[in-house]
Amino acid sequence: MSRPAGYGATALSTALDQARRALEAARSRDAAAGRDAARRDAEGPGAGGVEGGAAGGGRGGAGQGSGSVVGFGELAGQGLLGLLDPAAAQAFSAAVLAPLTAYGSRADLVASLRAYLEGNGHWETAAQRLGVHRHTLRYRMRRVTELLGRDLDDPGVRAELWLALEAARNPAISASPPDSSR
């Protein structure tokens, strides 16, 4: 279900897009609920300490069973990745991270970038997380900057890189994340 919209072409287009995204989220929830129910049925009665598979099922709440209604506003709580088309997010991630994943060094530049961003650009924090000296991390981040041709001091660039890293890591978005083992 979309948010209320006006009558203009732009408003209608926005409402239809919101409704489509909410429908996709509901279908994803229903598919997950179906897989969980099938798993519980396969495990048999009493599996996991719950008799008859009554673990929250059967009440018809939002996101449970078929026919659940998902409002577009509910999608915001699922994070930015929940609002993106999975194929587009994967393509974006692969394109942005390709120079790092193709780099033939023992240094894992993708993991270094992730640690740097998770540490909010604090060299000591990120270096400790990786188990390397801060100067090693500084060298790696200079290499990342060179390979990507992007300024890591720009908050918009950091946001795009974080989105690319999360899309690569999130199995709901990507069945096969880019190779970050190099």
UniProtKB/TrEMBL annotation:
Coiled-coil zones: none
Ranges of compositional bias, category Gly residues: 45-63
Region named Disordered: 25-63
InterPro entries recorded: CdaR-like_regulators, Homeodomain-like_sf, PucR_C-HTH_dom, PucR_C-HTH_sf
Annotated PucR C-terminal helix-turn-helix domain residues: 109-167
Bias kind Basic and acidic residues: ranges: 25-43
Highest taxon listed in the record's lineage: Bacteria
Pfam families assigned: HTH_30
Record-given protein name: PucR C-terminal helix-turn-helix domain-containing protein
The organism of origin for this protein: Nonomuraea maheshkhaliensis
